[in-house]
Write a structure and sequence with these properties.
It is built from eight helices and two strands, in the order E-H-H-H-E-H-H-H-H-H. It has 171 residues and is mostly helical. It has a domain of 107 residues. Strands 1-2 form a two-stranded antiparallel ribbon. The longest helix has 27 residues. It is globular. The protein starts with a strand and ends in a 17-residue tail after the last helix.
Length: 171
């Protein structure tokens, strides 16, 4: 289980950081041609467009969670979200989705007791490869206009997409 809390003093700062980070990220790819966005540097790697799509989708997920925390606080409830690994379909790569509930407790314990720096090292070096959360899995071939468009539209887009499941760290 992943527990997320928010304190009022850090809310404005967090929202400002989200906006500034999004603007800086989009500025880095401003002016790239579609061919550059779609270029895949090698096997099992993401294109620039897929990396950007992943970052923007993850940012959207975080923004939605912040909005939920704000709503809980306004309703006088404790601003805390309790998300399971199953909620986001986050797990060790190669673990079948059907087995994820059986590993919920061990993964939760790992999340609670393993220091962030060690957990990040294990996942970034792929010693323990984790699968991206489904809401942050990129879609190949999105146009620059789609990627740099209104973040509110990201969650409303419909239609078929060519999806390639990749695990975190395959950039």
């Amino acid at each position: 289980m992943i527990t997320t809390t928010i304190h009022s003093s850090s809310l404005a700062k967090s929202l400002d950081e989200f906006s500034a980070t999004r603007a800086r990220t989009l500025a880095m790819v401003d002016g790239l041609a579609q061919e550059q966005l779609n270029f895949i540097p090698g096997p099992n790697r993401w294109s620039i467009g897929e990396v950007l799509d992943h970052i923007l989708r993850a940012e959207r997920l975080n923004r939605d969670q912040v909005a939920q925390l704000i709503q809980l606080k306004r309703e006088g409830q404790k601003p805390e979200l309790r998300l399971t690994f199953s909620d986001l379909n986050v797990s060790v790569a190669g673990l079948p989705r059907s087995l994820l509930p059986l590993f919920e407790t061990p993964l939760t314990l790992m999340n609670m007791f393993v220091p962030d720096c060690l957990r990040n090292y294990l996942t970034r070096t792929r010693i323990v490869p984790f699968r991206n959360p489904d809401p942050a899995t990129p879609h190949a071939g999105r146009t620059g206009a789609e990627l740099c468009g209104d973040p509110e539209q990201d969650s409303r887009r419909v239609g078929p997409r060519r999806r390639r499941r990749r695990t975190a760290g395959q950039i």
